[in-house]
Design goal:
290 residues; single chain; 2 domains; alpha/beta; Rossmann fold
Length: 290
């Protein structure tokens, strides 16, 4: 089994492309919300949204690939049956412990403790890769994308999800986010238990009312694309609680426009880049240049 611990003793931790506070925070988060309460139909729905543009037919038989930032392994549970071998990579040992439990039934998963710039794979060795919601939580996102692309075989697909910079939203929407980000910067300093309490209250008093209002408006025939938190209108309160902690409990968060993501992927040696036109934004797919 491949394994590399985050700081590994090879370089001082401060030189690595990860934020220790964020890694620790996600270890706590996934221990609390290990996704065992996530209904299977909702997992399938969320998975389909992230992987909508992933080219399953182009993968070779018994494809070997990696998930960078696997967390609880919630997506790997649906990827593993489709591939030959799947390396589940995370810098948090606590998250990997949860992933091992989630994926205990799948003998083709291996668990790798590593930061993005210490991936223990040979260059050009992977048939595919994906990183969903992780690389916007490292100091140098562009370098992280390059590190992933380096491990791909020529022509191999790489699926990426990064927080969007509201570039397809009106100005008032971006201003609303800026106001909420002030709260995030205050909340992430709190002790974990208090942080959980506050974010659960946010899920109850902000996420749930807005999401259900969006659902009602949709049923009345209104377009709710720009309605705040409309993404959650058909999702469970469990997902809202998880995402509220994810959003407001994280020390380091970066956001990117579609154009910035495209440029980072191209500079990393990826081509034929396409974006999903459906939420969550932005999911992008690229192929390693020959």
């Amino acid at each position: 089994m491949l394994c590399m611990i985050a700081d590994g003793g090879q370089q001082p931790p401060e030189t690595l492309n990860y934020d220790a506070r964020t890694v620790e925070g996600f270890g706590h988060e996934w221990s609390r919300y290990d996704q065992t309460e996530l209904a299977e139909d909702e997992r399938q729905k969320l998975f389909a949204a992230y992987f909508k543009i992933f080219p399953w037919p182009v993968l070779p038989a018994n494809a070997v690939g990696f998930d960078l930032g696997c967390g609880t392994g919630r997506w790997d549970k649906l990827v593993a049956p489709r591939v030959g071998r799947l390396y589940c990579v995370d810098a948090s040992s606590a998250a990997l412990d949860i992933a091992r439990q989630t994926l205990a039934a799948y003998g083709n998963c291996e668990f790798v403790a590593a930061t993005v710039d210490r991936l223990p794979f040979a260059p050009a060795s992977m048939d595919f890769g994906y990183s969903l919601g992780m690389l916007h939580h490292v100091p140098d996102t562009a370098a992280g994308i390059r590190a992933c692309a380096d491990k791909l075989k020529p022509g191999a697909p790489f699926l990426l999800y990064l927080y969007y910079a509201f570039d397809n939203r009106p100005t008032w929407f971006r201003l609303l986010w800026r106001a909420s980000d002030v709260g995030r910067r205050a909340l992430y300093h709190l002790p974990f238990r208090l942080k959980c309490l506050v974010t659960e209250l946010l899920a109850l008093t902000v996420y749930w009312p807005l999401a259900r209002t969006a659902r009602l408006l949709e049923l009345l025939g209104r377009n709710v694309d720009t309605f705040p938190l409309s993404y959650y209108r058909r999702l469970s309160f469990y997902t809202m609680r998880t995402d509220a902690l994810d959003r407001f409990g994280t020390a380091l968060e970066q956001r990117f426009t579609a154009q910035q993501i495209r440029e980072m992927m191209e500079r990393a040696g990826l081509e034929r880049i396409e974006f999903s036109e459906a939420m969550p934004y932005w999911c992008a797919l690229g192929y390693k240049k020959a």
